[in-house]
Amino acid sequence: MNRSCDVLVIGGGPGGTPAAMALAQMGKSVLLVEAGSGLGGTCLFEGCIPSKIFRETAQRLRDIALADQFGIHLPHDLVQLDWHRVQARKRKILQQRSEAAARKVSQLKRLQLVFGRARLTAPQRAVIEPFEGENIEVSFKQCILATGSEPRALPVPGGDLPQVYSSDGILDIDHIPESLVVIGGGAIGIELAQIFQALGAKVTLMERGPRILGPVDEELALALEQHLISQGIRLIVNCSVRAVCEADEGLSVQYDLDEGGYDQIHATAVLSALGRQPRVQGLGLENAAVSVGDHGIVVDEALQTTTPDIYAVGDVIGQPMFAHWATAQALALARHLMGQPALFPKPEHNTATIYSSPELGMAGLTEAQAKAKGIEVGVARYDFSQDARAQITGYDSGMLKIVYNKTDHKVIGVHALVEGAADLMGEAALLVRAAVPLEVLASAIHPHPTLTESFVVAARAALAERR
Ligand SMILES: Cc1cc2nc3c(=O)[nH]c(=O)nc-3n(C[C@H](O)[C@H](O)[C@H](O)COP(=O)(O)OP(=O)(O)OC[C@H]3O[C@@H](n4cnc5c(N)ncnc54)[C@H](O)[C@@H]3O)c2cc1C
Q: How far apart are the C-alpha atoms of 207 and 205, rounded to whole Å?
């Protein structure tokens, strides 16, 4: 079977789906191909949503543990976790969201969705192997590659043992492991380590570097390490895993010590959280002369690959790997392909949350990144232990850092470690994107008692110090 379209979009995640929908709404004929069972990509099926659903259960357990403080006496032996119900709730939400996405797509006349695997065969041709029916030969004017990323394998002997899970695998696990070694102290490793600790596993977190969360503000990352330790997670840094072996009751993770020699830890399960790699295998990139570099598909500032009219967005072009980042790229690219002015997202405007406990939110540059750019940096601070809202909720530790340019007082970064930081990042994104001066921030009335007051108080304090 043959088909032609203006734009072929390969991958139906947070990059591909919004690009396809926006282009169809603006008048292009679009063919969207998705190799999974539904629309939503990693974000919906193996990433943002399922991990946060589990985190919510973990958070409820933490709340129950704090209940006494709130005058509620709950016998702890009455609290039981029904993991099968947690998994069932997850599946239901995933299905609802995937169906809702499919409904929205089906309302667009110019957009056709095919479930199957697509591969480029030439610079303006591809073949789709659908789940049902014969192969489809597609000719297109333009193509967007949005095939995302996949977990990196653990490259040591025993890294493929059945009790060694990737982040994909552990989200489908049918029990809470008695003990879990998490290898990798990045965002995914931290989130899942704290979730499984709260759900009842005894967790050890291993990180090769000297601290967790390498690119994150150092002060906040070190403060988060203290939270991990106080929650009962064993943290081992500066260690390099050399092998995973079957042991009497589970696995033994062997790791090299900085000072020489090696040690080992026993656990019933291992989570390999070494980060993700762009999904480029089997895409036929060589047939269309699309180059792949160390970090993923190579693109220019307008997201065009090394082949004219073939573009790429999202995880497949490398860091930062976030759903909102993929969508922002996709929407800018859609405008660009329509010949409209497009603001492609800039790394210095990115916003992200690590759903640790407490949450760690960041927008724009860290203090260190700003200094490395030669900016004269000031930092406005706030201590959440004095905060009314934080005291009321019982999650009353944490800090906010507003990084600003000392010459014009404009905000260039916001970093917060506090339960609720995720919801502070919307305002933080705007402060950074609009380069709001501290004077304006300090005069914007924020409601009391909310965590958002921290922005105003920090700005006022920083300005007062300068007088
Ligand atoms: C555990 C975990 C937690 C995360 N939490 C967050 C979070 O809280 N917030 C956040 O912003 N980000 C989070 N992320 C990252 C986020 O999921 C990704 O950045 C985002 O999904 C990337 O979107 P994408 O469209 O580029 O790729 P994907 O979402 O990976 O989508 C790519 C799609 O392409 C399809 N595909 C691949 N090859 C083909 C082919 N040949 N033909 C057709 N289809 C193909 C795949 O099936 C997939 O559906 C998390 C990730 C993980 C693993």
A: 7
